[in-house]
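To whoever picks this up:

The nightly regression suite flagged cellulose 1,4-beta-cellobiosidase (non-reducing end) as changed. Nothing in the input moved, so I suspect the structure step. Input below, exactly as stored in the fixture:
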Amino acid sequence: MLGIGFVCIVYSLGVGTNTAENHPKLTWKNSGSTTNGEVTVDSNWRWTHTKGTTKNCYDGNLWSKDLCPDAATCGKNCVLEGADYSGTYGVTSSGDALTLKFVTHGSYSTNVGSRLYLLKDEKTYQIFNLNGKEFTFTVDVSNLPCGLNGALYFVNMDADGGTGRYPDNQAGAKYGTGYCDAQCPTDLKFINGIPNSDGWKPQSNDKNSGNGKYGSCCSEMDIWEANSLATAVTPHVCDQVGQTRCEGRACGENGGGDRFGSSCDPDGCDFNSWRLGNKTFWGPGLIVDTKKPVTVVTQFVGSPVTEIKRKYVQGGKVIENSYTNIEGLDKFNSISDKFCTAQKKAFGDNDSFIKHGGFRQLGQSFTKGQVLVLSLWDDHTVNMLWLDSVYPTNSKKPGADRGPCPTSSGVPADVESKNAGSSVKYSDIRFGSIDSTYK
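Regenerated output under the current build:
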């Protein structure tokens, strides 16, 4: 028994002591009661270095060949460090508001974007069961141009960040471990409590990222993906309920395989007003005016859920979601299995949402419980054109026109230099029974 315990300690993902981990505080309301929460930044953004020294284990988009010749040795040598939230990541909080800055020039590095999770306490993610509930927040996207995405969403992460299932993980939720989503991302530096360094290949179009042998899959509820020009709400489901590790081509497109070859639905079933035929609903000076903060209400009708409804509140008025206006598609202003099947048929898209279980599987993922993610990012793969422009760029088929941004927009080098001062502000998060959080 002593030998087994020793091995777990030697190869575990540990934490550093150079910077104290002091989580930004964030209050929110649960069924009308104020809850004192915290947020933590994802482990992918954290400094990874050797124990007791400041030597980098990961630098740029490469793992150290000497310190990380394999995952076990890498885990033995390397630790995750605490975060300077405002100085390094441009993350600040005040009361019920959280602001994420896009580019932050710190003392030792330049940081781009961030991904944070809401904590219940210092070491545990807050878990939400969305079945039959309503989730509301206020957001300011006035400072987000084409190519950026201020995303607020839920994923089936473990509440402890994976420490229970993967004893090699000593960092846990406190240090932002355990991420997964429906894209089965392989760019994660740590999966299942160990470094994802084996087979790591640097990305040619991103000086900070690469892809490893493994990916991390789970269902994902994209409540909010948006900038000032476009927005979408999109559920995604996976065959398994909870976080699972994939390998290689089984991770789908991110693992070098077919886009629809993973156990998850990568496209999801999106409701994007512009894409669905209403080009006067969302944007600067439009019905929902993105020059001003807006309160976003998402209702998960039924337990288990059978329908997702969206409302907006701005200027004291409740604004119902727009209706579809696409030839051959019935009128919808909410998401359901019926809408998803009809939308995929009208656009000629792969109906992977229904193939992976649709709302039946979504309800099961909600029952297990999901973690709230708050992020800001740019897109090194397709320049965010899937959200706010025409994608594929040469396509004329229905559904390809997703937003008003030019197809030349969103290039990361451009937005990171020209729009470095961009930011998103999330505030006044409320969770409760339907029709209880916004009136």
